[in-house]
Amino acid sequence: MATVEYKGAHLDKLLAAFAPARVIQVDRRDSAAMAEALKVADVAVLAGDLDERFLDAPKLRWIHCDHAGLNKSARPEVFEKGLLVTSSAGRSGPVLAEHVMFFALALAYRYPLFYEAQKEHRWGVPGQDAQRGLFGKTMGIIGLGNTGKELAVRASAFGMRVLGYRRSDTPAPSGVDRLYCEERGDTLDELLQESDVVALVVPLSDSTHHLIGERELGLMKRSAHLINLARGAVIDEQALLAALRSGTIAGAGLDTFATEPLTADSPLWDAPNTLVTPHFTPAVPDRIGRSLDIIAENAKRYRAGETMVNLLTAKDVYTKG
């Protein structure tokens, strides 16, 4: 069954990926049709996240969620029932990496001040001669999945020194000058202490919930910027707010928040030297097509009993939200 609303050539490609199996298209708002489809479906391609209906489906074996973060689907019951759950992570990696660079440049150039000066027809801003660009600075990337790898290449192209932190002890990807791995016993401390820009592009799980808190913010340079393109709960937002107000760090670029939409009375809107975007990144060309490439590859692997792309693992479980 499929709740994704693909049309035309995209729908044809979805049907071809699962042929000769029958694909039941269901409007996700139609609960009765969903219940009927789940009586017979062994695969579900969802526009959103899974819920109890999918956990209780008698024949379901594989669920694909057509978006990146699986934290809302990363429930212990998934593994108790032996379900395979995958995502479309990576389809937007290039533009998510661009989003980090957008924040990094805007913060380094103190662009909001220049924009205010432009609106006032005022030439320059105080302290501009002391500013430094990104060239020669250090970026610490926490999370070296699809977006982290894309980001490392771009930061390196800007002439930045790139530090990376990942869970697994595997070779450093292109663009990473020094790699830290949880499996080797490395901590975040050295990366935080050395980085001028700290970029969070890590999945949200029980192990990354409030990964950045008061202690970690205290390790960062007072001149450093924190950028979050992960999930809001990766940061302790109260600790971040205190760090921004006290000058413990110089600023932040935030695209995700613990509560979304960010409430109108949230103090993060007005935090010092903080840029906010509404969990929105411009799309890559043919984003659906890129999703379909992942789905089609996983359909082949599912039939062959091979390890699937973007497969949820027990280490990804999230119960703290």
Task: State the main characteristics.
single chain, 321 residues, alpha/beta, Rossmann fold, 2 domains, three-stranded parallel beta sheet, 10 strands, NAD(P)-bd_dom_sf
CATH topology of the largest domain: Rossmann fold
Helicity, in percent?
25-40%
- Low-confidence parts, pLDDT < 50 over ≥5 residues? none
Shape-level CATH architecture of the largest domain: 3-Layer(aba) Sandwich
**Strand arrangement across the biggest beta sheet:** 6-5-4-7-8-9-10
Main sheet specs: 7 strands, parallel
**Shape, please?**
elongated
Spell out the CATH superfamily of the largest domain: NAD(P)-binding Rossmann-like Domain
Number of strands: 10
Number of helices: 11
What is the total domain count? 2
**β-sheet strand percentage:** 5-15%
| Radius of gyration from the alpha-carbon trace, in angstroms | 21 Å
- The CATH class assignment of the largest domain is Alpha Beta
Mean pLDDT comes to 97
Along the chain, the helix and strand elements come as HHEHEHEHHEHEEHEHEHEEH
Structural class: alpha/beta
Span between termini = 28 Å
